[in-house]
Specification:
Layout (H helix, E strand, L loop, with lengths): L10 E5 L15 H6 L1 H6 L4 E4 L3 E2 L11 E5 L6 H13 L3 E6 L9 H6 L13 E2 L20 E4 L4 E4 L14 H17 L3 E4 L46 H13 L6 E5 L5 H8 L7 E3 L10 H14 L6 E3 L8 H4 L6 H12 L5 E5 L19 H6 L34 H4 L3 H5 L5 H13 L2 H5 L1 E5 L5 E8 L2 E8 L5 E4 L7 E2 L9 E3 L2 E4 L4 E6 L14 H4 L2
Helix pairs in contact: 5-6, 7-8, 10-14
Length: 557
């Protein structure tokens, strides 16, 4: 598979720079801090890093409100620091992906400053402006994901502007070809600098309905959030018109054409729509995005049935594209709290990592998952996230998953010599990197062991996937590639299980993954709590799909 693109089957380690390592004592992580810890990241056995926004920003949404797409915010360092980061990462064999927030800017962006001044300036049509209704109310019923109307009045123009997120994040008008050209130029700036890929934040929000039609109401029994709190009025509508418009497909083609001019780079889109799996399949068709991921495994739902059904539904829709899976990120409660619900974290942490990294696709792993970090419980006074502040106490926002990385057991866990922007929980200090490094049975060592083991099994990186029907709490499937098949069985419970698995009768156990191993006698399998069974199957036992995965190198170009 030496000719395959690096991103297929890659494990991408997400770094939230504010919380990774602070080197100048201001309490906020920075680019030099990432440089300092890149050797640690490389030791994990991951393939790439994805760095959340570090661009110039007033930080209303902690960097996702960009004031200059082509410069580093002084809080994080300089362009020279980024170049140094890129050089060191590449020297360690790590690819580098960066966030690109294309659908909106900050109100402090020079484009918006000009656009808001009048209705006839050069950038008057660069944002989504609309007249008030006759009674002065907003032009339609669209809602912001952060609560309330998605429209903000601007007295300079005597019009409303659209913001799908904070009022400080006005939406760009992608119907304007000049806007699309300027955005693509910004992406080109970073590709020319040498990045290996871009993670596209809220990529399905670029276009809006030109007619500004009202979104229809959603029945109460359908108000299940995907990345937002269920008590948020945003859940009360079907979002048919404020995002995921058909015009976006042509723009994805323009973006892909730009990226195809560079060697082996990738675009990963974050997708949250009314049918995110269908949108993932649509957006990853040939000549669009290389990969897509959604919030489908970032929810409260946790069972073998839910995971199997979710992946199978995507597989049925995504006949040509390539998925990327995530069970944690900077926007949701940490997986050990969300899915663990107080169960012993250590063994579960490594089991969940192995499970998600064995699915077909690439994987995003959020910083701290390798340590088994749980969600931090913060007081209202400690919150910084405007989302959490607005919806407290039913929804506590995203700060609990954004607390600083614990590097040692000293003050502030070695994250900063100053006061951190968010407090370090005491329970995280006990999970510090330095402590786990000295414990051969730690979650960290288990994470490393599995990542390095996975690299030696092409079927787990590039193979097709076929699920085996099993009762709760067992998830089982095969991964097949170029005549080799791996059987993967996971016990998702904290108690042992027994099951009969005919497919395992002629299997040969695969060792070295570092997880709690099951036992097999004929067809009867015993799995300990959070146990696994990895085995190779003879090719005669496996019915291969019609599509030969060896074509992936051709499809990816």
């Amino acid at each position: 598979m030496s000719d395959a693109s690096w991103w297929r089957g890659a494990v991408i380690y997400q770094i939230y720079p504010r919380s990774f390592l602070d080197t100048n004592g201001d309490g906020v992580g920075d680019l030099p801090g990432i440089v300092e810890r890149l050797d640690y990241v490389a030791s994990l056995g991951v393939d790439a890093i994805w760095i959340s926004p570090f661009f110039k920003s007033p930080m209303a949404d902690f960097g996702y409100d960009i004031a200059d797409y082509r410069d580093v915010d002084p809080l994080f360092g300089t362009l020279a620091d980024f170049d140094r980061l890129l050089t060191k990462a590449h020297g360690l064999g790590l690819k580098v992906m960066i966030d690109q927030v294309l659908s909106h800017t900050s109100v402090e962006h020079a484009w918006f400053h000009e656009s808001r001044e009048s209705r006839d300036n050069a950038k008057a049509d660069w944002y989504v402006w609309a007249d008030a209704r006759d009674d002065g109310s907003p032009p339609n019923n669209w809602l912001s994901l952060f609560g309330g109307s998605a429209w903000q009045w601007e007295p300079r123009r005597g019009q409303y502007y659209l913001h799908n997120f904070l009022a400080a994040q006005p939406d760009l008008n992608f119907h304007n070809p000049q806007v699309r050209g300027a955005i693509l130029d910004s992406v080109r700036f970073w590709l020319n600098r040498g990045v290996d890929g871009v993670r596209l934040d809220a990529i399905n929000f670029c276009f809006h309905d030109r007619q500004l039609r009202d979104n229809p109401p959603k029945p109460k029994d359908k108000r299940v959030g995907r990345g937002f709190s269920p008590d948020n009025p945003y859940a009360f509508q079907y979002h048919y018109y404020n995002n995921t418009q058909p015009e976006n497909l042509a723009f994805l083609g323009e973006l892909r054409a730009l990226m195809d001019g560079y060697t082996d780079v990738a675009a990963l889109g974050e997708i949250s729509s009314e049918d995110s799996l269908a949108t993932m399949a649509e957006y990853t068709q040939p000549h669009r995005l290389h990969m897509g991921y959604s919030f489908e495994l970032l929810t409260e739902d946790f069972s073998a049935t839910y995971i199997r059904d979710t992946v199978q539904r995507l597989e049925a829709k995504m006949t040509q594209g390539w998925p990327c899976w995530a069970i944690s990120n900077h926007d949701v409660e940490r997986v050990l709290s969300r899915w663990g619900k107080g169960r012993p974290a250590g063994a579960l942490a490594n089991l969940l990592t192995a499970m998600v990294c064995s699915l077909r696709g690439s994987v995003c792993v959020y910083q701290g998952e390798e340590l088994g970090l749980t969600e931090a419980e913060l007081s209202y006074e400690s919150l910084r996230d405007p989302y959490g502040i607005a919806f407290w106490p039913q929804f506590k926002g995203r700060d609990g998953c954004r607390t600083p990385m614990p590097w040692d057991e000293g003050e502030h866990a070695g994250f900063s010599r100053g006061t951190p922007w968010l407090p370090v929980p005491e329970q995280h200090r006990a999970l510090a990197v330095i402590r786990q490094e000295s414990d051969p049975h730690s979650t960290l060592h288990g994470f490393r062991a599995f990542m390095h083991w996975r690299r030696s099994h092409p079927a787990l990186r590039w193979g097709d996937i076929r699920f085996i029907e099993t009762a709760e709490p067992v998830l089982a499937f095969t991964r097949s590639f170029q005549g080799k098949t791996v059987l993967a069985v996971f016990n998702l419970a904290d108690a042992p299980v027994e099951l009969e698995l005919p497919q395992a009768a002629e299997s040969v156990e695969m060792l070295g993954h570092g997880l709690a191993r099951g036992e097999l006698q004929n067809r009867q399998m015993h799995l300990p709590a959070y146990g696994v069974w990895f085995a190779s199957l003879p090719s005669s036992r496996v019915r291969h799909g019609a599509e030969d995965m060896a074509q992936m190198a051709v499809e990816s170009r």
